[in-house]
Amino acid sequence: MKTIFIFTFTVFSTLFSLGQTTEISNVTLQNYINVHGKKMELNGAGVRTKYFLPMYVSSLYLQDKSSNPNDVLYNVKHKVVQLDIISDFVTKERIEETVKEGFEYFRNSLEIDDEINMFLGVFKDEVVNGDKFQFVAEDTLCRIIKNNNELLVIDNINFQKALFSIWLGNKPINDDLKEEMLGK
To answer: Which parts of the sequence belong to the Chalcone isomerase domain (predicted)?
Structure first.
């Protein structure tokens, strides 16, 4: 009887776990994550490449899936962009350069230079293959997490929108990646 119970439990556990993750470029993404008591669902993900080299897997988590970038940027109060570094080509200098490029569009219009400089400080330590960054938006807050350690919290909705616009805005870092993150 005990053997039947263990077998049944194993079968149901295996069936339940199927579909709980998504794999992209050898990175296993959870289909659901819990962020401060809120269940977030994987909306979409893709690989950021530069000079034909894969750099990182970028994924977007939302409470309710959406393919509308303006809705995600301006109406969704809780969202997560996760970057899983998948290349030795990514260094703190290269990621800092990429982030600066992404913010360039907003530097003068939103007056968020102080916040951008604080954010760039997150990359003072070396960035290596296997690192995971999460940018967590909660109302007006933006939490920056590296490898499950919260490094910085910025309370500025304009900074938050500019940060998420790097991937989802009108001038994203990569159009194909934007579409993949929006589940298109």
So the answer is: 22-183
